[in-house]
Every structure is written in C-alpha cells, then in structure tokens.
C-alpha cells in the first residue's frame, strides 16, 4: 500500500470531515441539554470510537469524565456472534453514575447489547448509547441508541476510527474502499 496516498483508496466518500464535525456538534448540543447540570461519564468502546469520543467530548461545554472499554466479539467470519470477552474493563466504578456509551458504528448490535447488559448489572443511574453510524440490522435489536449520527446502508465503511485490517482509522472522512484494496 502506498501510505502517502491513503485517502485515494476511498472510492466513495459518504461523509466528509466537515459533515462529521457538524453532526457531532448537533449531537453534543442534544447531550448537553439532556444531561444539563447532571453527572456524565462517557464510555468509549476501543478502538473504533476513539475519534468520535475525542470530537464529541470536545463539543461539550461542560464537565465530563471519560473511560474506555475494549471488548472482542467472537464470530464466524466477519459477523459478530454476541459472545463477547472483555479485553480491558473500566477503571471507574459506575454504580450510581450516568453512563453514555460512545461507539462509532452499530452493525448487528450484538456487541453493544451484550455491553449494555453487562454495564446495567453494575447498577448505574442510567445507561444510554451514542453512535455515529447505524446499519439496518441494528434496528431489530432491543438496544436503542439515544443519539445516532446517521443511518447508513449495509455496506462496509472505513475512516474516522473505522478500520479495514487495522488500517484507515486515521482518515478524516468516512467512505467505502476501492475494490483494488481488497485484492
Ligand atoms: P456488531 O454491531 O455487529 O456487534 O459489531 C459492531 C462492530 O463491527 C463495530 O464496532 C466495528 O468494529 C465492526 N463493524 C461493523 N460494520 C463495520 C463497517 O462497515 N466498517 C468497519 N470498519 N467496521 C465495522
Ligand atoms: Mg465500535
Ligand atoms: Mg474493526
């Protein structure tokens, strides 16, 4: 791969940096209004949510704590199975806290629904979800994210935290990869 021209591997840009930043500012305003004056602990799901967390949190003109979890979802092939293992747990006791889970994309929703029931068992005051992107299958899941950037079609996207074989996370835009990347 020509690492000097990473951006040119995107064949179709779905969301530009400007669109992403604009939408995250709107979401931050909603979050600020909903949590006005109250406690807020944002929990980012590593590694994909790093960019969303950084920009969403900086869009908030209020105090916020941030913590991180890393989970791995066992699956056959590319689909998650819902069988999840915690690779890195929270450093924070969330009992009595208002928790906002921050994710970059919900596909089947299996990973996140496992995570939500795991977090709920720790007696938080509340647990909500913010995700930048949501795919159609997630609509069938019982977990309903309170904040969604955009609903997208069922295609594989990269950039802004989203990887293909651990690459492309550092792109500022989100899009689909050119076919030559896969071959
Ligand atoms: P699920 O919601 O199916 O349990 O899994 C969600 C995870 O699958 C995301 O956090 C992400 O790591 C990965 N994923 C799902 N759809 C895509 C996609 O279109 N592009 C990329 N790069 N990862 C995806
Ligand atoms: Mg994720
Ligand atoms: Mg990935």
UniProtKB/TrEMBL annotation:
Provide one Gene Ontology cellular component. cytosol
Listed under GO biological process in this entry are: GMP salvage; guanine salvage; hypoxanthine metabolic process; IMP salvage; purine ribonucleoside salvage
Q: Which InterPro entries match?
A: HGPRT (IPR050408), Hxn_phspho_trans (IPR005904), PRTase-like (IPR029057), PRTase_dom (IPR000836)
Q: Which cofactor does it need?
A: Mg(2+)
Q: Where in the cell is it found?
A: Cytoplasm
Q: Which UniProt keywords apply?
A: Cytoplasm, Glycosyltransferase, Magnesium, Metal-binding, Nucleotide-binding, Purine salvage, Transferase
Q: Name one GO molecular function term.
A: nucleotide binding
- Outline the extent of the Phosphoribosyltransferase domain: 20-165
Q: Which Pfam families match?
A: Pribosyltran
- Please state the Enzyme Commission number of this protein: 2.4.2.8
Q: Does the record bear Transferase in its keywords?
A: yes
Q: What is its main location?
A: cytoplasm
Q: Give the enzyme's main class according to its UniProt record, as a single word.
A: transferase
| Highest taxon listed in the record's lineage | Bacteria
Q: In which pathway does it act?
A: Purine metabolism; IMP biosynthesis via salvage pathway; IMP from hypoxanthine: step 1/1; Purine metabolism; GMP biosynthesis via salvage pathway; GMP from guanine: step 1/1
**Enzymatic reactions:** IMP + diphosphate = hypoxanthine + 5-phospho-alpha-D-ribose 1-diphosphate; GMP + diphosphate = guanine + 5-phospho-alpha-D-ribose 1-diphosphate
What family, per the record? Belongs to the purine/pyrimidine phosphoribosyltransferase family.
Q: Could you tell me which NCBIfam families the record lists for this protein?
A: HGPRTase
Question: Mind telling me what this protein is named?
Answer: Hypoxanthine phosphoribosyltransferase
According to its UniProt entry, this protein's organism is Nocardioides donggukensis
């Amino acid at each position: 791969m020509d690492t000097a021209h990473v951006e040119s591997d995107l064949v179709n840009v779905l969301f530009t940096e400007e669109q992403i930043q604009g939408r995250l500012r709107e979401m931050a305003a909603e979050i600020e209004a909903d949590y006005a004056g109250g406690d807020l602990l944002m929990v980012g799901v590593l590694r994909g949510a790093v960019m969303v967390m950084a920009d969403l949190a900086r869009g908030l003109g209020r105090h916020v704590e941030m913590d991180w979890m890393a989970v791995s979802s066992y699956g056959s092939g590319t689909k998650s199975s819902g069988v999840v293992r915690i690779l890195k747990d929270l450093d924070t006791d969330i009992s009595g806290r208002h928790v906002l889970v921050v994710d970059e994309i919900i596909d089947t929703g299996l990973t996140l629904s496992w995570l939500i029931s795991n977090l709920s068992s720790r007696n938080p005051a509340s647990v909500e979800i913010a995700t930048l992107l949501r795919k159609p299958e997630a609509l069938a899941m019982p977990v309903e994210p309170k904040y969604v950037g955009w609903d997208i079609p069922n295609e594989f996207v990269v950039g802004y935290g989203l990887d293909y074989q651990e690459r492309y996370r550092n792109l500022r835009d989100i899009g689909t990869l050119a076919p030559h990347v896969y071959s």
